[in-house]
Amino acid sequence: MKGSEFKPQHFKWEVADRVATVTLNRPDKKNPLTFESYAELGQTFRALHKVADVKAVVITGAEGNFCSGGDVHEIIGPLVKMKMPELLQFTRMTGELIKAIRACPQPIVAAIDGICAGAGACVAMASDIRFGTARSKVAFLFVRVGLAGCDMGACAMLPRIIGQGRASELLYTGRTMDGAEAERWGFYNRLCEPDALREAAQGFARTLAHGPTFAHGITKTALHQEWNMGVDEAIEAEAEAQAICMQTQDFGRAYHAFVAKEKPVFEGN
Q1: CB 133 within 8 A of CB 187
Q2: Cβ contacts of residue 70 below 8 Å, gap of 6+?
Q3: Rounded Cα gap, residues 142 and 119, in angstroms
Q4: What is the spatial distance between Cα 4 and Cα 124, in angstroms, rounded to a whole number?
Q5: How many Å is the Cα radius of gyration of the chain?
Q6: The overall pTM is greater than 0.90
Q7: Phi and psi angles of residue 44, each rounded to the nearest 5 degrees, phi first
Q8: Is 124 helix (H, G, I), strand (E, B) or coil?
Q9: pLDDT band at 59, cuts 50/70/90?
Q10: In the 8-state DSSP scheme, what is residue 129?
């Protein structure tokens, strides 16, 4: 299957030069998620296992905002009326989106401008790399609507990104982080000007997409799986992973390019 064959209904999808760009596209409401977009995003990231021509992914939002979280009228309103079995079905579905992002073999770069709140902040958190703007506002605001901060893996993942104390503060208070603080705390890898954000994220993704992409997939798997390993287990897992990568043609290409004093051209095999 090719990435160009994807025809999602609930977000924009573009593929160019080995990079797929997902654009959350409800700008009139700051790009909130709905029951349908949650499910379709999860299905898309799962399907990327079988897509050979997409080597990296950018996820962003339309017209100056990333994502305002779950749509108040289309999600929050119905949730208030649901019983426990339906509520658990919903919360598990939202968690499946995060699992799909983490399990997706392609590196994912989030390009974050404007509002990045609730479930939107969790999608950004689950991405591999995050580029933001100074004017952006990140908030894990679940507590502000009477819910726990432990949503969509936030209590497991956010402390690993910014540290336990900082994550605790954000999850207990639901307060907003501006772009400068998000970069200082390590949530953002870098800050960009708003009009340069999308191209910066896509340019970084293209660099990854033209690198040793088989090895990148191994790196992403190791970064995720080693959370649950001791140091000795991790060292053994990485020894096995690296031995596998040493069998790839890209490893040989890099060696021969080095000997010839040339830049290697990787093909992902």
Answers
A1: no
A2: 32, 33, 34, 76, 118, 119
A3: 9
A4: 24
A5: 19
A6: yes
A7: -65, -50
A8: helix
A9: very high
A10: E
